[in-house]
Each structure stands twice: as C-alpha cells, then as structure tokens.
Design a protein that fits this description.
Layout lengths: L9 H7 L1 H13 L11 H6 L1 H13 L9 E6 L5 E6 L2 H19 L15 H13 L4 E6 L3 H4 L2 H9 L5 H12 L13 H32 L33 H14 L8 H7 L2 H25 L15 H18 L3 E5 L2 E6 L2 H17 L10 E3 L5 E3 L2 E3 L5 E2 L6 H48 L1
Antiparallel strand pairs: 1-2, 3-5, 3-6, 4-5, 7-8, 8-9
Helix pairs in contact: 1-4, 2-5, 6-16, 8-14, 14-15
Length: 471
C-alpha cells in the first residue's frame, strides 16, 4: 500500500473519474471552442476522445498534469475598446470545467445575495430586478462604478487565502495554482515549471507560430498558384464562459478534407517554387511539416524564421503573481471567490450592494449616505488589492436615469431594456417590482395606521391626566 502522503485526495479522485471528465468534455464541446497554443481543436481532440480523457485522468491522479500556457486573443468590445482574452487548450479547459462542476456547489451556498454574475439561476435580469425593487422602496440615490482592470489585478495570494477558508484540499489548491501560474503565450509560463513542462511549452510555442505563419502568409499564394483557395483553420477564439458574448465565428470548427491529390499538388508546388510556407492547412501541415518532408534545408529555414520570435518571448518571461485570465472556465468563479470578502464587508456595513462581477451599484436613500458608502466600498476594494474606476464612477440622484448592464432605469419607474430582450424576462422583472411596490405601500399604510392609533392613545391619556389634575 502506498504511503498516505502519496495517495490522491478524495477530491482529486472525483475529478479524475471518467464520468466527471466526460461530462466536462460535453460542456466544452457544446461551447464550440477553438484550439489553444497546442493547435488542437475540439474536433481533433474528439477523434481520440477515449484515450485523450484516459490520459488526462491518469495525469491528474499521478500529479504529473501540467497545463500549457494560454493563448492571448484581443477582440473588440461593444464600445470599440479591446478586450483581452486568454484561451486554454482543450485538455486544460476540460480539467478546469470538471473541477468547477465539483467545487461550485460548495461555494455557492456561501456567496451572498448581492452577487449576480456567473452563478446558477442568476443573470443581468435578476440584478436589474433587485435594483428596481430597492428603488421602489425609496432607495433613489445611486453610486454606479466598476473595478479598474479587474481580472488582471486579482492578487493570487489573497485569492488563494480566501479559497482555503472553504476548501483546503492540497491537490485542488495545487491545480488552481498551476492554472494561475501557467501564463499567457506572450509572457511565457512561470520559470517554476518543470523541465518537461517547459519543453511542452516550447513545443507548443513553435507549433502555434508555424501554423500562424502558414495561415497568415500563404492563403493568397496557394490561391494564385494552385487555383484553389483554402480556408485557413481558425485558431483564435475559444469556448468562453461569458454568457453574453458569442466569441465563435460561424464555421469555426469546419475543416477542409485532405485528399491524396491535394497532398500531391501542394508538395509539387513546394518543390517547384521552393517556398516552405505553401503549407496552408493545419491538418496538412501536421503531416507534412516534418523532418522527412522538409529535409535539412527546410528545417534550417524554419528555425531561422522562428528563432528571433522565440528568443523575444523567452526574454519576457516572469512569474505572474496577479491575474485570472478571461477565457478560462474557472476564472469567473474565482472572481466571485476573490470578491466575496468585499460583499461581506459591505453587508456588515449595512450597504445595499448589487454587483455583477466587477460592475456594481450602491443604492441609498440620501446623497450623504451615498457619499459615505462609496468611501466604504473604495476602502474595502483597496484591501483586496483593487481600485475603483474613477472615470466611470457616477453619483446619480432621484431625478437622473441609471444605466446598468445594458438597462436604463428611469426616474418615473420606467425601464428601457437592451435590444432583443425577451418579453418573458421583462414581465418577470415588472411583476417582481410591482409586488415589492405593493408590499412597500401596504407596509407604509400599516405604519401610518399604527402611528395614528398610537398618537390617539397618547392624546387620550394626556386629556385624562389634565382632567384629573383639574378636578
């Protein structure tokens, strides 16, 4: 029997179980994600699904699992500003998704009612419902702000300290530390990686850059020389856990079938023109970009082409101590873990908070109260290593509209929803607000009636005393 210290924990055994990994795989596949730095797409991973999942389970159980670095992608946000995403490879997404499915219920019962993002049964609509309910109860002064550069600013030490207050399983913590330290392709992974992990990363780097060069340079060349335009294999975007933005363009996972004639044509053009980068399709490149196919000259040419870029990336290496990359299945959950102490501190200070990830409202009855609770919120964020976004902070009075999560709440109680909001969602919001308004009115009437009865008793008692003293 193995020593106790070498046995995998119960959580790790559950994580590595075939059914756990398979259910996680189904969710990753449903998100239609693309390849990470290893250039392995969801479709390619599925071709050998059973051995791939078995290998993943073994590596988790034996603690030999090491994640690859993430692939950086920049996409435009609705306001035109760039949004940085970091895409894990399919294998790492499955492992993260599996762990999330296991541990999320443990933390969910601990999260507060003021948090609405990335949680089961909650959405932007339920957050808006909460704000409208508060406004119907007289909380018409509002502070609207968000956290500056939130995901890149998450402190790993503070995050892990908070995580261990709920779960201190050593194997789970080790995996989360690995994912946080994996780094993004531009920054190269942490030097703390083992030699095997660094070799895997270097291979993935080389693999990805070859394919990027092939796809970006040669599509026009092949179209001109072969007369058969090739659709480049998409490598950019991944399965996002963001429930709002669809990151995958149509036809992402489509692949051009390989035929013997295509292979012969491309190889003939390669020999005739002496251009290595005529290999445009990733599936063909994986088979042809080898030492036998390229020969010594081709290998030297490839090395000369890639070496400057590889050296540049190696020089940028540094271990990350902050940041939870957007694009990973686990990051939204970790963001809620990191902000849970902030939610608790505001509740203890009797602050009405409605938070959706890093975007939040503080709803108050008076201007003075709003100013005071904003100072409290700012102080509590600083304790988590975070700052409010001063450029987006607003103090809004009762006669000003409040824009939050795409909705606009008007001073008269009206609501302007985002385009394409379903009628069912709007009816649910309206019904909840009307119920709250009715309850608030009934409560006010009850208080008023109680006050009148109390005042009448006081006056009657006072009159009796006066009569008694006069007699």
């Amino acid at each position: 029997m193995l020593p106790i210290s070498t046995l995998p924990s119960v959580w790790l055994q559950r994580l590595a179980a075939p059914d756990t990994l398979y259910q996680a795989w189904r969710k990753v596949r449903a998100n239609r994600g693309a390849a990470g730095v290893d250039a392995v797409s969801v479709v390619a991973y599925e071709r050998d699904l059973k051995p791939n999942l078995a290998d993943l389970g073994r590596s988790l159980l034996t603690r030999s699992y090491e994640p690859l670095p993430l692939r950086a992608v920049t996409i435009p946000k609705k306001d035109g500003l760039p949004r940085e995403l970091a895409i894990p490879c399919v294998r790492d997404r499955i492992a993260q998704r599996a762990l999330l499915d296991l541990i999320e219920p443990v933390f969910e019962g601990r999260f507060l009612d003021s948090s609405f993002a990335f949680r089961p049964g909650r959405s932007t609509a339920t957050a808006i419902q909460r704000v409208l309910t508060a406004r119907a109860q007289g909380y018409m002064w509002t502070v609207h702000t968000d956290i500056h550069d939130f995901f890149p600013s998450i402190d790993h030490h503070l995050l892990l300290d908070e995580f261990t207050t709920v779960m201190d399983d050593i194997d789970v913590l080790r995996l989360i530390k690995q994912w946080l330290a994996a780094g993004v392709l531009e920054h190269t992974p942490s030097p703390g990686l083992s030699l095997l992990g660094q070799c895997r990363m270097a291979t993935a780097n080389l693999n990805l850059m070859v394919f990027e060069a092939i796809e970006s340079v040669v599509e026009g060349f092949v179209s001109e020389r072969i007369g058969n335009p090739v659709t480049a294999s998409p490598l950019l975007l991944s399965d996002s856990t963001d429930p709002v933005i669809d990151l995958d363009p149509p036809g992402m996972n489509s692949e051009v079938p390989e035929t013997p004639s295509r292979r012969r044509i491309i190889m003939r053009r390669l020999l005739e023109n002496g251009i290595l980068l005529a290999l445009t399709e990733r599936a063909l490149a994986k088979r042809l970009l080898t030492m036998p196919a390229l020969g010594i000259g081709g290998a030297v040419l490839t090395g000369a082409f890639l070496l400057p870029k590889l050296l540049e990336k190696l020089e940028q290496s540094h271990p990350p101590e902050t940041g939870a990359p957007q694009g990973s299945p686990l990051s939204p959950f970790l963001s809620n873990v990191h902000l849970h102490p902030f939610d608790v501190a505001l509740r203890e200070a009797n602050v009405r908070l409605v938070r959706y990830c890093d975007d939040f409202l503080l709803v108050c009855r008076t201007r003075q109260e709003a100013t005071q609770v904003f100072r409290t919120a700012r102080h509590q964020l600083l304790k988590r290593g975070l700052k409010v976004n001063s450029e987006k902070t607003q103090l809004l009075g009762p006669n000003e509209p409040v824009q939050f999560l795409g909705y606009e709440m008007l001073p008269n109680g009206g609501l302007i929803p985002p385009p394409h909001t379903s009628q069912i969602v709007l009816e649910r919001i309206q019904a909840a607000v009307q119920q709250t308004a009715g309850e608030a009115k009934a409560q006010a009437q009850s208080v008023s009636a109680t006050t009148r009865r109390g005042l009448a008793r006081v006056l009657t008692d006072l009159a009796r005393r006066l009569d008694s003293s006069g007699g």
